[in-house]
Design brief:
The structure holds 2 protein chains of 2 kinds. Chain A is mostly helical. Chain A has one domain. Chain A has helices spanning 2-33, 42-54, 57-79, 88-126, 129-135, 140-178, 183-193, 196-222, 228-258. Chain B contains 9 helices and 10 strands. In chain B, a hairpin with a 2-residue loop joins strand 1 and strand 2 (21-31). In chain B, helix 5 (121-134) packs across helix 6 (151-163), helix 6 runs parallel beside helix 7 and helix 7 (181-198) runs parallel beside helix 8 (209-215). The chains are: A mainly alpha, B alpha/beta. Chain A binds chain B through residues 39, 120, 124, 127-129, 131-138, and chain B through 52, 55-57, 81, 84-85, 87-89, 91-93, 95-99, 108-109, 112-114, 161.
Amino acid sequence: MRLSLLIAALGRGVLDTVRGAGRLALFALNGVSHWFRPPFYWRNFVTAFLEFAFFSLPVVALTAVFSGMVIALQSFTGFSRFNAQSAVADIVVLSVVRELGPVLAGLMVAGRVGAAMAAEIGTMRVTDQIDALGTLSTNPMKYLVAPRLLAGLLALPLLVVIADILGVMGGFVVSVIKLGFSPSAYVANTIGFVQPTDVTVGLAKAAVFGFLIALMGCYQGYNSKGGAQGVGGSTTAAVVAASILILSFDYVLTEMFFSR
Amino acid sequence: MSGIASPKIRIRGLSKSFGPKRVLDGIDLDVETGTSMVVIGGSGSGKSVLLRCILGLIQPDAGTIEIDGVDVLGQTRRAQDATRERIGMLFQNGALFDSLPVWENVAFGLLARRGKGRIGRVEARSKAGDVLRQVGLDPSVGDLSPAELSGGMQKRVGLARAIAARPDILFFDEPTTGLDPIMGAVIDGLIVDCVKRLGSTAIAITHDMASATRIGDRAAMLYRGKLVWQGPASSLLESGNPMVDQFTHGRREGPISMELRR
């Protein structure tokens, strides 16, 4: 009896998860389909793009600089045990460009923009603003979701380019000023070691992460229920889900592109 | 007057349930062209769901809704959009877009139009000023954000948004809720003016009996998802129906029992 209850609960959980994934996939397809079906709300796209790329710049820049600095220090400490200090520049550029740039930028933006997106759309849902859009000849998916999804997809790679540069600069500053590296040798090592695919795959990751952040923000906000508590729950769910998806997709993409 | 003219809005057998709760239970309702129908009923009696079904925001489980003789539930998405363009709605809490200034809220439906009826932002701004004037607001209010307005002003802006595209059907969801009696009377007056000026057909749902008698030509009462009474709005306070009498006079004792928990 107890076993059958356990299996039933497990089955319900699996079905709920599959149903939720299906709903999310349909929501994403519906949103993306509006990129190709006019009208496209360019003003909303520009607003969302600025929110992603421009207003997130300070927090992402600080994260990238300090991450680059910490990697330089830690890798120097580790490699000095094997007299391999010269690899510090290589490790810094590889870690930042392949992993830390896209992942840390993604996590910071998920906390900043994903949460704001879920809160804004969730508030619109519980105050009937989304229904009002429907009565004013405006498809809410087209007006609210499609521009944000495109903004996420395009803005995060741009942000990550800047994060990559600043992260490498952070490592450079620590290596030269604190660890006594030669500036020209450090730069030559960095440029010589990094491959174009390291950068492009990092940017492709960023595009996927940006899309996921916008998707979770929009999805959770759009399906908010109740009042302030419901919106709060959606905001939390958007950040948590986006963060988990970023980390899991990071593994999948790394496995796809770098695992040889 | 032709005796065989079909009603502007004709509802037959409309039913809607949310889980085990039956919110609308076989509603039959006609609203004649150019008249204002007021729907009264307690909280949770299905009034808002009725409006949302007509607007297409909620899909009913059964029944038909005809506007000008056309079944709107069987329409294609494009035709549904065209139907919605003919309907203006004032939401209970205004539902103004707080990311947009007041003028853009008012002109939103005009700016959303495609094809021949499309207008530019400059023209939309000017039209928004005209509509704001019609609801007793200075056009300079158009530059403010909705959050900077009082409750009464937000209702007026919501009304301006509802009438901006000159719809032939208007819906009002609790238009006076949260307003003081004087502001409530002002909003009711504006609603009556707008409906008359546009020659629109209107459905208003309200708890406010003073408002119901001011706005409505006809009235109907919903109780537990069923239409229990229909008649002239002027007879609301002495309808002779025990349920309506209990509701309009706010009596604790009577045939209506409050659902404390269900």
